[in-house]
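Make up an example, fold above all:
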Amino acid sequence: MLWLSLFFVIGFIAIHLFSKNMLFLKALPRSRFLSIAGGISVAYVFLHLLPELGVFQDELQGEVERTAWRFLEHHIYVVAMLGLVIFYGLEQMVKSSKRRRDKAGGQNSRDGVFWVHIGSFAFYNALIGYLLIREEYESAWGMLFFFIAMGVHFITNDKGLRATHKDDYDRYGRWLLAVSILVGWGIGALTEVNELIISFLTALLAGGVVLNVLKEELPEERESRFSACCIGIIGYSVLLLLL
């Protein structure tokens, strides 16, 4: 499924490069699509990524007993929680930086915080690109569902990052995120990373997805739509369970 995965990588790249042209995303109250997208991403995490962590944990039994990673035999979900905490910390760092800039008269946002924030999402994207080709899908439908879940998640993330970093995101950020997906896919196409590392990174990804969805859905100013989010969760859950 190499060529199919490359096709989906191109789709991910197109999302980052052209999501700013999706005018309906600027609507308030929040576009129903974004709330549905959040529900889809949450469903994918809880019904696919987290169960997969359980499989990883079973496979690690005895293999890391005498290494520094032995705690992962029983606590892989702690890493998922760590992923959530890391992305929460990054968001708080960005907000603090923005408040300082506002007090200083709104200086250019393209500072160290911008690069750290975008760099973390570039890593996040590279992991998704890697998993797109290295994930053991039962069929092409499994890869398609992964693409849909992460694609709508990228649209939501793009909107949040663009609101935070404004022109700097369009000038630099979206290009870096687009390239990072291709880099992750290329690494997956050329080599296979150790299963232990992949289980660790997948757990971080799961925590990051949950945090980023909640960050976009919960704030009052987003005027999110609970019913649309539930539709996304229920509808996508049914599809995953039927897969």
Q: What stands out?
A: Helices lie at 2-18, 32-60, 72-103, 112-134, 140-165, 167-190, 195-217, 226-242. The mean pLDDT is 80. The chain has eight helices and no strands. Residues 72-103 form the longest helix (32 residues).
